[in-house]
Predict the structure.
Amino acid sequence: MHPYAELISGTLLFEGLADGHVNELLGIAVEKAYEKNEMIFMEGDRASGLYVSTDGMIKIYKLSQEGKEQILHIFGPGEPFGEVPVFSGGTFPAHAEAIVKSRALFFPRDALVGLITGNPAIALNMLAVMSMRLRRFTVQIENLTLKEVPGRLAAYLLMLASEQNNNKVVRLNISKAHLAGFLGTIPETLSRMLARMANLNLIHVAGREIKLLDMDGLSALAESGKIVDL
Amino acid sequence: MHPYAELISGTLLFEGLADGHVNELLGIAVEKAYEKNEMIFMEGDRASGLYVSTDGMIKIYKLSQEGKEQILHIFGPGEPFGEVPVFSGGTFPAHAEAIVKSRALFFPRDALVGLITGNPAIALNMLAVMSMRLRRFTVQIENLTLKEVPGRLAAYLLMLASEQNNNKVVRLNISKAHLAGFLGTIPETLSRMLARMANLNLIHVAGREIKLLDMDGLSALAESGKIVDL
DNA sequence: CGTATGGATTGACTTAAGTCAACGACAACG
DNA sequence: CGTTGTCGTTGACTTAAGTCAATCCATACG
């Protein structure tokens, strides 16, 4: 059995696919490995298939002329990326880079289109994945334009907590510089906001461990987007 | 023949669908009409199908606590909206409101899922539509976070020009207040930026008619996101 | 024909967050 | 054990864009 059969058949994208199909699919997949900070593809590159991360962590991001980066997604094992050009043609809309040593499977476009054509369940899975992406983008745009940095940060921390069993102590799985890039700000500002929120006894910060002290306060901040007091 | 058969079979979403299917689909569609400023659905509403605009103009938007609005899309005839919950379940991710007297067809979820299941071409069309939405969102996030207001405005004007036969005189099809909402700013700021760009002889503004005087300058501004002077 | 009404503009002021630069902490490594 | 580099923090300053308020303009309307 293929080493990634279990991972692949457990992903949202390929779930419900018969074992035969999974093995067939894995037969045509190309395994790729990337060092930390290695580019996987660049915005504008011609695309010929999609990737599924199997190991490590991948950032998808845009870069401004001046070099500021806006992170769109950070993907871990099991998550597909680079799927947009498979269906709308053309080129990748953003850059992809491994932020730690990573591995991914690459699936050529034609095999996927064939699979989807013959397999309505996979088509619906793919539509579900893309719908969730769209949903997350609307939230991200909302956060970026309708909330200030402390509001975005509070919303992020609450999201992390809900992902991590609603534990009161969350652990950042990325560097603070990357978090700043995801929140649409810069490390200096993030640092100041963490300090302010600690002053207000909303949180307690120890490296990448952040203790959420006042869930109601954080929720209010995440909702209103405005910090109540200094 | 159904009055909207031509419009529907010409949309990206349903193109390539056999006439029989189109008529069947139109048989189950519900026609809806909306006055100017009437809500079509609200963020958080339980969804049971998607809409295709047939007439008028629809804005899809988010609202902040303080009432500021961020417009995500403005859709005209032939464009589907409200499709996200059809595939990922749950509720609408944003509000939809008619900005002029409008009409739309509503397609119940089950009929669509059935159609897609039995019709791979439609599945691929839907995937193409959603891919393009994702692509546009990445551009929108890039503009909102990596460019300043003049850069976003220049990019918008150039996009309008390319949509309108590359004419040097573009016509805004929405109010300046709505444009501000789409660009992630407020009418006052938009007004000032138009004035600044006019001062720099980049454009000439006469109501909703905007003459693009310096395409290279506008491109530079749209790229860099920074206004060169004044 | 005067007057509401919504859209747009302008001015004075405030503020969130970016820039630039220095410094601190900590781990990895020779 | 000091050196080097990465990551994070802090301070002083600048700036883009938001707020609030007044005004303007055009069109619609009684």
